[in-house]
TrEMBL record:
Cellular-component GO terms for this entry: cytoplasm
UniProt protein name: Calcineurin-like phosphoesterase domain-containing protein
Domain Calcineurin-like phosphoesterase: 1-193
Pfam name, any one: Metallophos_2
Family: Belongs to the metallophosphoesterase superfamily. YfcE family.
InterPro entries listed in its UniProt record: Ap4A_hydrolase, Calcineurin-like_PHP_lpxH, Metallo-depent_PP-like, Pesterase_MJ0912
GO MF term set: phosphatase activity
Domain of life: Bacteria
Source organism: Devosia riboflavina
PANTHER family per UniProt: BLL5683 PROTEIN, METALLOPHOSPHOESTERASE
Top-level taxonomy: Bacteria, Pseudomonadati, Pseudomonadota, Alphaproteobacteria, Hyphomicrobiales
Amino acid sequence: MRLAVISDVHGNAPALDAVLEHIAGEHVDAIVLLGDHVSGPIDPKGAAERLMGLDAVAIRGNHDRWTVDTGSRGAGAVDRFAQGRLSAEQLTWLAGLPATAEVGDEIFVCHGTPENDETPWLDNFYDGRTTTLPSEEEVAGHARGIDSAVILCGHTHIARTLRLSDGRLIANPGSVGMQLVRGSPDAHYAIVEKGRRGWQTALIAVPYDTEAAAKLAEANGFPGWGESIRHGWAGPESLG
Ligand SMILES: [Fe+2]
């Protein structure tokens, strides 16, 4: 089993195109989408079109909930922008996504943690333009009750893979379309594969035309996104 793992596209269709082109050369058996698919100022409709066209397992993230229901606590301007760009069919697709899913017998997928799509798992929430690591107890605690050998999560936009002391693999592929904190503008995704020695992860970063994407975000009224898109050294407060 060889999986491509995509998370946090945030409506960045050009970054998604670069990732899908890379995946086309990777001979994967399945694609998994971990949520926050469309909420962003670049091309939410184009991102939804591409994602709905994939034969992929998809779950929802916190921003997908907020794009569907822009009146809920936490929803912001960029969720309203995305909602305004999506077709009725695309919004129906988004509204119907589950919070978590299983792929085969060995893989569990969620957006934040198994219980909550707003809780960061492998990194703590950002402190300005940096972040800190949670303790082993905190990381292991969120995996309690999940028997799967592989657990995939997103939400933090920080690519990381680790093993719990019992051997279970947890991997976060990072974000396709919105980079934060540690300076890589590239579109991130992951390949997770069951090899001869067990489950293994490759964290992949693909370059794309960030300048064109940043200009689109700015033209659509979100100048704060330019910093994140152009160089990736940004904290969430700069997104506006
Ligand atoms: Fe996100």
